[in-house]
Amino acid sequence: MNILFVCSRNQWRSPTAEKIYKNRSDLTVKSAGTEPSARNRLTAKNINWADLIFVMEKKHKQRMVEKFPFETGQKQIIILHIPDEYTYMDPELVEDIKTKVDEYIQK
Question: Is 85 within the bounds of a domain?
Answer without folding.
Answer: yes
